[in-house]
Amino acid sequence: MMNYSPGDAPSPGAPSPLPAVRAANLAVVRGTRTVLRGLDFTVPRGRITGLLGPSGCGKSTLMRAVVGTQDRVTGTLDVLGHPAGSAALRPRIGYVTQAPSVYTDLTVRQNLEYFAAVLAPGRANADRRRTDVTRALADVDLTAHTDALAGNLSGGQLSRVSLAVALLGAPELLVLDEPTVGLDPVLRRDLWDLFHSLAAERATTLLVSSHVMDEAERCHRLLLMRDGAILAEGTPDALRSSTGADSVEAAFLHLVDRAAGRTAPAEPVRPGKDLLR
């Protein structure tokens, strides 16, 4: 895996000028509760966009809307040039939920072979499936665990199996809902190295959610959420500069205070601390 400085910008060739995701007046209402409040934002192609905010602010709902599994969505939401949820998008998007989505009574390889067969069925695609499975196992560093039952793996290993499933077929857009939660620092670092490698070397677009603000510094671009709304979007440097803060954590809290009409500076949180849990 590669080492990557968050301030650098990968050069995957000549990315499309059209964004991977474009939302306009995007809203989701559940009963009497408005979960997403008229969001307007874009996600550029071939970059890592971090979706940052406290638990319950609407991150998972927004991600489900992007991949087309959320109901009661209004407004405009285009993904890779199609309306979100279009059948044409299914092989082009990889999605990892917070809970590992694998079969615990199958081995690691059997899980990947099963999902690869769903993506590319038929004998004519057998070689492609083998190649995809081998590459995905190597990407998440699970080659040595291919014959282990998924039910016997650690939590971190299960998370990597779910990520490997999402990488099958080389998706153009990866939507990752808190993929590093509960992982040890070494595995978190390795996964972020993988994310940067995917963006830089394969021009993959990644939308990664987190409530841990030190992960914001690892992203090319940020969407900061609070109470179902986008507080701000931009690069980490731009957000720090626009608020006069020395960290994205402090910038976020400054924006929260500004939205609440408070003028006193917010006390910065410790790096790596869960954001307003």
UniProtKB/TrEMBL annotation:
<dbReference type="GO" id="GO:0005524">
    <property type="term" value="F:ATP binding"/>
</dbReference>
<dbReference type="Pfam" id="PF00005">
    <property type="entry name" value="ABC_tran"/>
</dbReference>
<keyword id="KW-0067">ATP-binding</keyword>
<dbReference type="InterPro" id="IPR003593">
    <property type="entry name" value="AAA+_ATPase"/>
</dbReference>
<dbReference type="InterPro" id="IPR027417">
    <property type="entry name" value="P-loop_NTPase"/>
</dbReference>
<dbReference type="InterPro" id="IPR003439">
    <property type="entry name" value="ABC_transporter-like_ATP-bd"/>
</dbReference>
<protein>
    <submittedName>
        <fullName>Multidrug ABC transporter ATP-binding protein</fullName>
    </submittedName>
</protein>
<dbReference type="InterPro" id="IPR017871">
    <property type="entry name" value="ABC_transporter-like_CS"/>
</dbReference>
<keyword id="KW-0547">Nucleotide-binding</keyword>
<dbReference type="GO" id="GO:0016887">
    <property type="term" value="F:ATP hydrolysis activity"/>
</dbReference>
<feature type="domain" description="ABC transporter">
    <location>
        <begin position="21"/>
        <end position="252"/>
    </location>
</feature>
